[in-house]
Amino acid sequence: MGWLTFLNPTFLWGAVAASIPVIIHLINRRRARVLQFPTVKFVLRSERRVARKYRVKQWLLLALRTFILFLLTTALAEPVLQPSVGELAEVGQARAVVLIVDNTMSMAYQTAGTTSWELAKEVSELVLQEFRPQDHGVLLPLVSTDAPPQALSGDRAGLMQQARELAHTFQPGGFVLPFQRAYALLKTSEAPKKEIVVITDHTRTPWVGFEPATLKAIDPQVRVTVIAVGPTGAASNATVREVRLDQPAVVAGVRTKLTASIVNFGVVDRKQVPVRLMVDGKTLDQRLLDLPKQSATDFAFDVSFDQPGYREGTIALANDSLPIDDAFYFSVPVKKALRVLLIDGDPRTMLVASETFYLMNALNPDRAYRPGPIEPRVVPVEEAERLRLGEFDVLILANVRSLSANLRTRLMDFANQGGGLWWFLGHQVDPTVYNRTLFDTPARLLPARLGPLLERPEAHPVMLQRPDASHPILKPIAERGQDALAGVRVRRLFATETASLPPTTRVLLALPDGRPLLLEGTAGQGRVLLFTSTGDVDWNELAVTTGYLPLIQTGVAYLARREAQERLATDTRLPQPIILKSSEQQREALVTISDPQGKETRLFPQEQDGRLQAEFPEPQLPGFYRLRVGPEVGLVAVNTPLEESDVSAIEPDDVREKFPGSPVAFVEWERGQPLRPPQVEPMSLAGWFLIGLLALMLVEGVVANRLR
Amino acid sequence: MADKPNYFDPLTLSKLSTLLLRARYVVEGLISGLHTSPYKGFSVEFSEHRQYAPGDEIRHIDWKAYAKFDRYYIKEYEEETNLRCYLLVDASASMNYRSNGVSKFDYACYLAAALAYIMLNQQDLVGLVTFADGIRRQLPPRSSPGHLRAVIDSLEQTGPGGDTDLGRTLHHIASQLKRRGLVILLSDLLDEPTAVMQGLRHLRYQKHEVLVFHLLDHDEIAFPFTQLTQFEDLEDETRVITDPRAIATDYQEQIQQFIGDYETMCRRQSIDYTLFNTRMPLDKGLLKYLAWRGA
Question: Distance between CA atoms of A286 and B126, rounded to whole angstroms?
Fold first, then answer.
């Protein structure tokens, strides 16, 4: 059955007029006058004989008049009979319907206080309500952790229950897999009419990657109906794409530059949007930012983390129509200090004569008064053999003659764990030994092969060129003055074979003749710097220039073990799993993860690519997850999927193109509207109502005349 | 110049202060309209001569005519005897209905008073009985001039009320009236017709001449109501709510049948039956009486 709608429903208020005859009747009945009369016995006899029949006619007349008024008002309201979904699907023929419901994050978009998800649930119930006993169907949510259904069901009540219980998720999702399943399920059905009904929003995201060529399963006999809910073209949404820290390692009390990249996916510029930076729930900074439409904008915050340990950071935007992605979570492991081990290859009893004297002072110039953010420790090579290198972030090796195989192995392990190495050369360095033990081995610890020692007469030193300020190490120097390093005189240095530099090696500082003074390379997961001269003033004057201290400090910070390598797990976005790194020593440790709601799950580490790691495969909520591996604790932030924040709309024609040869209907549904565009024109009933009205008036006239 | 009031109109009469005045106006208006004297022949009067035939009493021979014509003529006289009239006025509750200011009982009183006025002026004897379920007041027939006052007082002091038991009352009256005379019944006859007719037949059996003045209100005959009405009987607890338009036709048929039945039954008993609508002028009733008197 179709349903009756009215083009001018305001006139329906006139239907109240239909009650007028009844009201008049009731009033008249209440107002019956009392009359003392002599011939009541005749009245009584007539009443018994005649009035009963008359009363029936009166009621008939009353009903006729009431119905006449009702018909008149409803005819004025212009009634139209809308075809139903059942009629559209050709009444009588069994249908097999797969209902794909988009429950991805973008369905949380709000319009006039209602989310697209709420509308989608309403629509899914409407679709299922039209199911007839001969129809079969199945419900496929876009995101589901349940096993996909294997067959169509005729249990409409069960399907409706499933639809009611269907939950919205924070996950992204695409239509490829559901459609493949839908076509496969419909292939098993013998129903003459097959249809896939998709309930989604207008966003383009779930259609990304949906191409007929890749899908291959498209059956042109299957009708596709896409019912889109929510905003159509002018959707607006902004979110934080990423948060970057300028320093690889964050040290407590040291101001760190934090850059948030904010994307406005909307089609209009947004002005003066409040953006807050919060750490551990406290607001540290707040800005009003302009977000140009459909572009990303970077905003930097200077932030100082007071306490070491894992800190919960949040960038919160003012709520928009999709508030679910307006908060971006990030975790920050804050170190108490950077630990630097200086291995002095030429220690002296007079500190000033030691190779590491200037380096030590550059790393912690205030060490006599208070501990700084960098904690340097100087040891001779022999002592370094006994130390646990993993406790340090950076190793500086100054004028070391040679390294034992054991120490080299431990250095490589250190580098593989992300630790940084900085080589300073000197008179004890034998290039042949260095090349053989540190460069020409699989475990390469030098960024370049060393050449012969180059010496310049004292009177004719080489003047350092103006450095390239684009590198993070050199940027602070450049900011302090472009000439801070220019003019530094270098008397001796080791040549490096620039022709055979490894691809990961980069020259940061060079002499006018192009010979490198400072090179950067990699070793394992760590970074390596090679200064081809001494760290003190024996071969050059760098240590007594104003650029020395910032160069050494920024160099150490640059080399420091990156927080990502130190973390138990890195921040991620849904639906990516959280992967916990675990060491061999922690093989037997209890590994747990707690989601933002405090629900704890135990994980079991397994060998993966030679490493021990545990996977939490299905984070469901954005927020902070607390990790525990034995005594070690960690924190990881999980954010909403970025692609779901993109609410740009897909055009109906683009959807139709994805189903070549198939009948496709694209319905932009709003509350109170029919589910689909009427394929059968709605039938106007106003004329029939007027004919009925005239007929009733005729009958009324006859009945009324007979009553007289 | 204002028209002279029509004193035959019951409504006009009702505005007059006393019933005596009303009776006088009615009768005198009627008499002046007739242009003949109703007093003619009230006494023993000569009527005609006829030739003597054997068997005639000799004392009736007109000797003067014998002297003049030498033939025996008998002098015949029209012998007038005084009429003894009984006015039976129904005073049951049903007579109290009025649709235009004059109830059936009022109408009956006007008629009775006017008739009494005429009769007493003719030296006839007039008696009065008012009754409902039994006799309420009764005045024996008298012809004294002061008797009119007594009749009118009696009518004025009688108010309608009580049930009708007309048949039994007529029987009772018939058994009381020892000497035959004229019985004029003024009633709406709303009782079982068979019983009523038996009562009237009893009167006829007693050799009384009977005139039935059947008084009905206009509403009772025409049933002109249009509004939903709860009808309550004046004499008992019967009540009915109905739409009068629905039953008007049937009712009218019934009332006509009721009237027709009385008319037929009265004719069979040689009873003069006249229907009075209380909106009719009163002269109709009086003329009816005078016509009878003349006959």
Answer: 124
**Contact residues on chain B for A33, CB-CB shorter than 8 A:** 227-230
> Are residue A413 and residue A535 in the same domain, yes or no?
yes
Instruction: Name residue A45's amino acid.
Output: R
Nearest to B212 by CA among B151, B261, B154: B261
Among residues A564, A582, A606, the one where a domain terminates is A564
CB–CB contact B240 A43 (8 Å) = yes
* Domain range for A545: 338-564
- The reply to whether A539 and A609 lie within a common domain is no
Cβ neighbours of residue A580 closer than 8 Å, sequence gap 6 or more: A568, A569, A591, A593, A603, A605, A613, A614, A615, A616, A627, A629, A634
Quote the ipTM score: 0.78
CATH code where residue A466 lies: 3.40.50.880
CATH of the domain at A98: 3.40.50.410
Same domain, A106 and A69: no
Q: Which helix (H) or strand (E) holds B230?
A: strand B229-233
How far is it, in rounded angstroms, from Cα B27 to Cα B113? Answer: 10
| A427 and A477 housed in the same domain | yes
Mean pLDDT of each 10-residue bin along chain A, 708 residues long: 75 79 75 86 86 77 85 84 60 83 92 90 88 88 83 89 90 89 90 91 88 79 90 81 84 87 89 92 90 90 88 91 92 89 89 86 78 87 90 93 92 90 95 93 92 78 65 76 71 87 87 86 92 92 86 89 70 88 76 91 83 84 90 90 89 88 86 65 79 87 74
Taking CB atoms and an 8 Å cut-off, how many pairs form between chains A and B?
98
Q: Hey, is the C-beta of B156 within 8 angstroms of any chain A C-beta?
A: no
Q: Are A117 and A204 contained in the same domain?
A: yes
Number of domains in chain A: 5
- DSSP assignment of A273-310 equals EEEEEEETTEEEEEEEEEE-TTEEEEEEEEEE--S-EE
Tokens 């040689």 correspond to what residue? B270
Tell whether A227 and A253 lie within a shared domain: no
- Establish if B247 touches chain A: CB-CB under 8 angstroms: yes
For A528, phi then psi, to 5°, come to -135, 135
Domains defined for chain B, CATH in brackets: 10-36+82-294 (3.40.50.410), 45-78 (no CATH)
Sheet (strand A664-668) strand order: A136-141, A95-101, A193-200, A223-228, A664-668
Residues A353 and A489 in one domain: yes
Q: Under an 8 A CB cutoff, do B234 and A37 touch?
A: yes
H helices of A308-377, in order, are: 357-363
The answer to whether B237 faces chain A, any CB pair under 8 Å, is no
Chosen domain end from A294, A317, A335: A335
Residue A120, classed as helix, strand or coil, is helix
Which CATH number characterizes residue A596's domain?
A: 2.60.40.10
Q: Report residue A486: phi and psi, to 5°.
A: -65, 135
Q: Kindly give, in sequence order, each residue whose CB lies less than 8 Å from that of residue A99, ignoring residues fewer than 6 positions away.
A: A124, A127, A128, A137, A138, A139, A140, A159, A163, A197, A199
What is d(CA B102, CA B278) in angstroms, rounded to the nearest whole number? 7
Task: Nearest by CB to B230, from A32, A45, A50: name it.
Answer: A32
Does residue A493 sit in the same domain as residue A543? Answer: yes
CA distance to A123, A416, A484, A658, per residue, from A176 (Å): 22, 40, 59, 11
